Amino acid sequence: MSISSMQDLLADFADRRDWNRYHTPKNLAMALAGEAGELAAEFQWLEQDEAFRVMDDPEKAKAVRLEMADVLSYLLRMATVLDIDLEAALKEKVAINEDRFPPRSS
Amino acid sequence: MSISSMQDLLADFADRRDWNRYHTPKNLAMALAGEAGELAAEFQWLEQDEAFRVMDDPEKAKAVRLEMADVLSYLLRMATVLDIDLEAALKEKVAINEDRFPPRSS
Amino acid sequence: MSISSMQDLLADFADRRDWNRYHTPKNLAMALAGEAGELAAEFQWLEQDEAFRVMDDPEKAKAVRLEMADVLSYLLRMATVLDIDLEAALKEKVAINEDRFPPRSS
Amino acid sequence: MSISSMQDLLADFADRRDWNRYHTPKNLAMALAGEAGELAAEFQWLEQDEAFRVMDDPEKAKAVRLEMADVLSYLLRMATVLDIDLEAALKEKVAINEDRFPPRSS
Question: ipTM value of the model?
C-alpha cells in the first residue's frame, strides 16, 4: 500500500464522519504531538534492553503498534490537508543529511 | 515508494554511519516525540486560517516539510527495529475506529 | 509552597516507593514529553474560545488540572536529579527574552 | 520566589509585549508540548549515565536549563490564563498517587 493510498483511506474515513472541520493543520500538528507523547510514554520507564523486548508482551505490543498507527495517521492527514508529498519530503531530508553526515570511510 | 522501501533507505543510511547503536526503540520514541514537538512549534502561534496558508511561505513550507520528514523517519526506524508492519498497524487501527466511530447515516 | 518544598515533597514520595532508579534524567525527560503530549491532547480538537471554557466542565477541568500537575511533577523531579535551580533558570530565560523581545514603546 | 510571583513576572512580561492574544490555552498547550519535545531532544541519544552528567558540559547545561525554563514558563502561563492553582493541583495529584501507589512496607 502506497503512502497516497493510505492517505486516501484516511481521507475517506474522515469524510464519512464529517471530521474535516477538525482536521486543520494546527489541530493535526497538536494531535500528532499528543500521540507521539503517548508512544514515548510506553517506553519511559524501560531500560534499553527491555524496550527491545516490548513486542514480546502481546498487550504492550498492541499498544505500541496502535500508538504508531496513530502517529502515522495524523502525519498522513497533515500531508493531505497541507498538500505535502511525504515521499519527496523524506528524500529531500535524506539528501540534506547525506551532506551533513558523510558516511564513515570504509 | 512503498513504506518498506523507505525503511530500507533509512536502514541503509543508518548502517553506513554506524548509527544502529543509537537507534534503539527507546531512543527513537524519544526522538519522535522531539520532532513532533518541533513540528507543533511551527504552528503554535498561528490562527487556524494562517496554519492553512503555512505552505505559501517558502521558508516556513520547507521547515514544515522537513519536520514532517523527521517524524516519518523516526517512525519508520522504530518500525524497523521493532519489526512492526506499519501498514498492517494502520489497518488494524482503522478497523478499531470503524467500530468506535460509526459513520454518519446518510 | 516554594518550588523547593514541592521538590522535597516529590523526592520523599519517590524515595518511599523506591522510584529513584526509574527517575533518571533521560526517563524523566521522556515522561515529561509524554505528559505534555497528553495535556495537548485535551485541547487538540477545541476551538480557541472553547479552550478558554475548558475549566467550566468539571470532568475536563480535573483532567487538565491533573495533566498540568503531572508536567510540573516531572519537571520538578528533573530539576532535583540534575540539581537545577528552576527559579534561577526562569530568571535567566526571562533576562534573555528581555533582550530578544524589547517591550513595545508606550 | 513563589509560584504566583513567577506567574506575575511572566504575566507582566507578556502584557508589556501585547502577547496575551497569543497566549490562549490551546496555543500554550501546544507551545508546552513543543518545548517538552525540545527538552527530550537534549537527551535522546544519551545513555542513562551520560544523561546524569549532562550538566558537566556548560553548553549542554545551559541548553537543558533554558529548555526547562521554557517548559515552566508555558505551564505557568497556562495556569494563569485558565486560573488554575498549580500548587493545589500538585497536592491533588500527589494525594491520588498516594492511594494508587502505596509506599513499600518497611
Answer: 0.96
